[in-house]
Specification:
The structure holds two protein chains of two kinds. Chain A is mostly beta strands. Helices cover 0% and strands 49% of the residues of chain A. Chain A is built from no helices and eleven strands. Chain A has strands at residues 5-7, 10-13, 19-24, 31-37, 44-50, 53-57, 65-68, 75-79, 88-95, 104-105, 109-113. In chain A, a hairpin with an 8-residue loop joins strand 9 (88-95) and strand 10 (104-105). Chain B is mainly β. In chain B, 0% of the residues lie in helices and 50% in strands. The interface between A and B is medium-sized, with 23 and 23 residues.
């Protein structure tokens, strides 16, 4: 399968714990995005990479959130000291650098903070 | 920041009826993309509109970009049960390449 993959698909954690999610984009795509989606809402932008450079980060993103893409391939999103409000679906997407290229989304990681 | 409003929030139609969802912005958009998300699934790209007044068709789906590039619509002719899902419009953000998703229109189709 050459689509975007995310791991894990589901994560249940207790409040205060740290969690890390992984995203593997489509191999020839050098742009990678993280979004968060809650029930009944559209995906909300979190951050974006072009190759290994993090070019944009949402102002809404707390400093408990950090993302990396060290070799310009896969990316990780870490949430420290999780809160119940962090419960959501975390979506990763990738695209090429051609013009207004469409984004291809992964299946998401569903986080539940208890 | 850039925001779009989608209406209606929800529509329940009889199979075979038409369906339209509208996306409105207070600012001029450089382009707009449409995505579909099936229940339990992830967003899937449908189309991109760039030019003022642009109309694009995909089988029973017709996408339109307003002349002023402040609104867009998606029309589905003769809905089928496979059309069920949430339809999102997503203009490209003001700066950079992020997408700014609307809240979506949920479509349910009764067979």
């Amino acid at each position: 399968d050459t689509g975007v993959s995310q791991d894990p698909r589901h994560k249940i954690t207790k409040r205060g714990q740290n969690v890390t999610f992984r995203c593997d984009p489509i191999s020839e795509h050098n742009r990678l995005y993280w979004y968060r989606q809650t029930l009944g809402q559209g995906p909300e932008f979190l951050t974006y990479f072009q190759n290994e450079a993090q070019l944009e980060k949402s102002r809404l993103l707390s400093d408990r959130f950090s993302a990396e893409r060290p070799k310009g391939s896969f990316s990780t999103l870490e949430i420290q000291r999780t809160e119940q409000g962090d419960s959501a679906m975390y979506l990763c997407a990738s695209s090429s650098t051609r013009g207004w290229s469409e984004q291809y989304f992964g299946p998401g990681t569903r986080l539940t903070v208890t | 920041g850039q925001q779009v409003m989608q209406i209606p929030q929800y529509q329940h139609v009889q199979e075979g009826e038409d369906f339209t969802t509208y996306c409105n912005s207070s600012t001029t958009l450089s382009n707009i993309q449409w995505y579909k998300q099936r229940p339990g699934g992830h967003p899937v790209f449908l189309i991109q509109l760039v030019k003022s007044g642009e109309v694009k068709k995909q089988k029973r789906l017709t996408f339109q970009f307003g002349e002023a590039k402040k609104n867009s619509s998606l029309h589905i002719t003769a809905t089928q049960t496979t059309d069920v899902g949430t339809y999102f419009c997503a203009p490209r953000g003001e700066y950079g390449n992020k997408l700014v998703f609307g809240a979506g229109t949920i479509l349910r189709v009764k067979s």
